[in-house]
Write a structure and sequence with these properties.
The chain is an alpha/beta fold and 195 residues long. 50% of the residues lie in helices and 17% in strands. The protein contains nine helices and five strands, in the order H-H-H-E-H-E-H-H-E-E-H-E-H-H. Helix 7 links the parallel strand 4 and strand 5. The protein starts with a helix and ends with a helix.
Length: 195
Amino acid sequence: MGDVYCKVADRYDAVSDMISMSMNKRWKQRFIEQMQPMPGDKMLDVAGGTCEVARRYLQYQDTVNHDTTSSVHVVDFNDSMLQVGRRRMAQSSWMDNERVTFAQGNAEDLADVPDNSVDIYCISAGMHNLPHPERALCEAYRVVKPGGQFACLEYGHTDMPVIGQICRWYWDTGIPFLGQVLANDRASYERLARS
């Protein structure tokens, strides 16, 4: 999947927003609100390369908690996605104050993240791409402080037959079509939809 993300990195969030009919933005905002982070929390954002969740987390901390001490460490396997995130955050006060940091890494082996070092482990739309998600869960358990949070936002399936058929058609046919129209890249979006 790494090569697919290299090809779509610059357009990933914009196309995801269009494909999800902007629900993606709402889901991610609700995701942060449900976390209810506390002032000073350190969040590890795994598979968070484009910084969409990291940005929302820091905005929440700044505006809701009036907190300027919280931080987020963004880890992604794909350097192209991290480059997008770095560019997005480059001019922010968060970068100036070192409240956001970046590392290329593997969710299944977070060797550079110490035990019991983060208040929140976050992964958004990344778990389904991992060959061994159970390893990522073990790593999450290792790095989260006692009493900390594991927060995972993923796409799912519905048990409602008609809605399920519509969703399956959309994932199998609609998303690749939109990938072709919006990004001139049907094949990459076919692979993303299958993942």
